[in-house]
């Protein structure tokens, strides 16, 4: 009998030691640990799990049903994505019963957890919550850096306007779309003299103010800085030519208003503008036509705008078709 008692005491000490070791291992895990039995009742958890779900601590105890823990957390605001409470609880229960989940969860305090769950052979579920807040911050910083790099690749750092690369894409897109598009090529008159006389800081101030004025007048169009004192405006919907012509007139007027530089007032800067319309000749031909019109504006004394007199491509094609048709008819009659 004594031998049996000794053996039983030894077995109990062994079980207690194993339980203590298991608890020590669980507490040492780098994250929140939780285990549910086959009936979705809480079997064990560690302190980190309670800290992670600090708004649900009243229900996190052995024997608690998974559904009760979730409902208590929803009521306490533990789950920031629980918009429709009943739908959220139903979905959580369904997902939990499937087992084998791995997903990210944003917590009320802004931290992030990686939730990993796995079903055991006996039907229960073991879950681990790992704090990935630092990783999410790195991801956010990386995404922001990529966004900044992409922005800089397509925008002028001085004025914030789209650059030539973005302009090329916008012009090609406008020309490929149905309907008529328009292009305004703009040069600032007197800009070089400002740079030479007052320095590059003054020139930069003029460029930034000119960009702001372009944005205001051409708010419905795409405004770009091509380089130096060259700007462009792409009008995608230019079915009414008078609107683009009115825009050109407004731009000439607004760009010759005085520019501020510190306490100084720069009054000898204006703009020459070339306007051209696209009806099918393509972006390169449209750019050449607008640039030719800009040259005519400069030859006319600057601080003015001119419209391209180039016969549009579509009209030329129609005339050519008519001539061919007439020649065929004459050949048939003869």
UniProtKB/TrEMBL annotation:
InterPro entries: Biofilm_reg_signaling, GGDEF_dom, Nucleotide_cyclase, PAS-like_dom_sf, Rev_trsase/Diguanyl_cyclase. SMART domains: GGDEF (SM00267). SUPFAM superfamilies: Nucleotide cyclase, PYP-like sensor domain (PAS domain). Gene3D superfamilies: 3.30.70.270, PAS domain (3.30.450.20). Residues 179-310 form the GGDEF domain. It comes from the Bacteria. PANTHER family: BIOFILM ARCHITECTURE MAINTENANCE PROTEIN MBAA (PTHR44757:SF2), DIGUANYLATE CYCLASE DGCP (PTHR44757). NCBIfam families: GGDEF. This is Diguanylate cyclase/phosphodiesterase withPAS/PAC sensors.
């Amino acid at each position: 009998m004594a031998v049996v008692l000794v053996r039983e005491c030894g077995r109990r000490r062994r079980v207690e030691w194993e339980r203590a070791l298991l608890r020590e291992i669980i507490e040492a895990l780098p994250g929140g640990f939780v285990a549910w039995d086959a009936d979705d009742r809480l079997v064990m958890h560690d302190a980190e799990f309670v800290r992670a779900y600090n708004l649900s601590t009243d229900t996190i105890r052995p024997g608690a049903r998974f559904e009760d823990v979730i409902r208590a957390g929803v009521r306490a605001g533990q789950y920031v994505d629980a918009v429709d409470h009943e739908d959220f609880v139903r979905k959580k229960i369904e997902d939990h019963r499937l087992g084998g989940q791995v997903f990210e969860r944003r917590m009320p305090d802004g931290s992030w957890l990686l939730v990993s769950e796995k079903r055991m052979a006996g039907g229960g579920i073991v879950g681990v919550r790992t704090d990935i807040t630092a990783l999410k911050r790195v991801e956010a910083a990386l995404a922001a850096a990529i966004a900044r790099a992409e922005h800089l690749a397509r925008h002028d750092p001085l004025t914030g306007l789209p650059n030539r690369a973005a302009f090329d894409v916008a012009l090609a897109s406008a020309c490929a779309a149905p309907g008529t598009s328009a292009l305004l090529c703009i040069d600032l008159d007197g800009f070089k003299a400002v740079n030479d006389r007052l320095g590059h800081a003054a020139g930069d101030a003029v460029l930034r103010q000119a960009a702001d004025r372009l944005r205001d007048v051409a708010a419905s169009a795409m405004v770009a800085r091509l380089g130096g004192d060259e700007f462009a405006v792409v009008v995608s919907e230019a079915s009414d030519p008078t609107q683009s012509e009115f825009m050109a007139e407004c731009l000439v007027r607004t760009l010759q208003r005085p520019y501020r530089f510190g306490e100084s007032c720069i009054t000898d800067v204006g703009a020459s503008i070339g306007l051209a319309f696209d009806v099918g000749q393509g972006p390169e031909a449209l750019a050449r036509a607008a640039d030719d019109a800009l040259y005519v504006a400069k030859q006319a004394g600057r601080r003015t705008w001119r419209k391209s007199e180039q016969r549009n491509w579509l009209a030329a094609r129609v005339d050519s078709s008519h001539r061919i048709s007439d020649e065929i008819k004459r050949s048939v009659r003869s």
